[in-house]
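Folding follows sequence. Below is one example:
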Amino acid sequence: MLRLGIDIDGTVTDPKTFVPYLNKTFNKALSYQDLKQYDLTKVLDITEADFWNWMDEYEPIIYKEAPLAMHAKEVLDEWKNQHQLLFISARRKHLLEITNKWFKDQDIFYHHIELIGNHNKLEAVKQNNISIFFEDKHDNACMIHEEHGIPVILFNTPYNQDPIPKGVIRVNDWLEAKKWVNEWHEVKI
């Protein structure tokens, strides 16, 4: 049984989720393809303070309404009896109730959810003895692989196109992720 560490936003949720909220609030006409950077302060040309004021207001709404990434539910449903599903997110801890309700509303099974409140997931990966991690943030994927020597599945987005090391595997969707994990797991057992 593998211990799968899974990011939530942009990985289990559709990475396009934030775009309509950004456009409406900041009076923009951004497309998903315009999000070439993970740092939205640079995309929107706003201050860090303005960004966090916006997040304080919209984060609970966005996380409550976020649609699932394509094929996420079917793959996670298939894995729930084969592997441990441990969701490790940079979401802030006060959003745990909203996060738990979203998982319930989406009927997504989990063994554990951990909101760490920042993007440094290294300690959570170590404490949870993760076998493979699933991520959309480029530098997180690279750091987790380099620090812990585990494979990291990086979901392909416009904002994570920098080169990746050999142990970071770029996939376009959950079906590709499942195929890679199943093949890797077959070799390991």
